[in-house]
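pinning this so it doesn't scroll away 📌
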Amino acid sequence: MNWQKSLIKTLGIASISAIATLSGYQVARGVTFAPPPENGTPRSGAGAASRSGQLCGATASAAKTMPSSPTLLLPEGNYGQTLSAHPTILVAVPGTGAGEALFSLKNKEKNVIYTTKVTLSEKAEIIAIKLPEDAPALEVNQTYQWLFAFNCEGSLRPLDPVEGWIERIEADGEQLGAGATINTIEAAASYAAAGIWYDAASVLAHLRKTQPADEAIKQHWQELLGSVGLKDLQGVSLGD
């Protein structure tokens, strides 16, 4: 974990440096995910295939843009790390007539500590689920399971949900600094290099959503997804 903390310490300096540049400046550094060391966290046994769940109420165009099922934006094993107490989680959904989905978060005792309804569009898109500030804060060095399921039958009973894991890790507050919380390509690259998947993905997703015409951001977004075997999702738009 020492190598990871060393990389985390560079985040504040890197981000502050990026802020000092002109707004049109783009870094040449790549955004490629480097998995953290194996730490015994529970994983889904089916690997990348288990990132997809079952579909209900698909629209005719769904299969043309992405796999016909909800897909986790996670590395193989469906596990990732974050520095945030209230992180953002990304899920790719096909066009569906379901209307809404259920998202829930469980602690290590398997108790549901947060749940919310997610409104779905009829078009294929990547949605961002942000844990609100009034939700229970993720504790450092704790791993949580989250589940996402379509509401296929007019109720919120989860049917064949996709599931992932998220672990909050500790950051060196003095070295990290406020700059690391700013959405820059350099910050995303540093998160990815340190194995902090959720933060790298959410930063780049935000940049891609707010600056859709920026070719450098588009390239880095595709690079990050490709580094974890999610090339099929590179062209899927980000939802509101």
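📌 and the second one:
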Amino acid sequence: MVNAVAGSLLTCSDAATLQYVLFLENEGSLGKSFVYQKLDETHLFVDSAYVDQILAKIDEFSDRNAYELDRGNNSKDSAKPNKAKR
């Protein structure tokens, strides 16, 4: 017997992003299980109802962990956090 499930293919830019989505799944931060299947290192089959929320969480995480090079400073190693707009 065949079981069919409607969902969406989520393609992550890298394995680290996929691991973050799996962390969200294990943490239960979206309130319900949303990952149906891990397909490979950059693809997940997920519940379509949660795609926008997943993408928003990835954007928030990226904003918190992104750094910009301070080009006004002469130091080559100068970097500062990229502050997310609220």
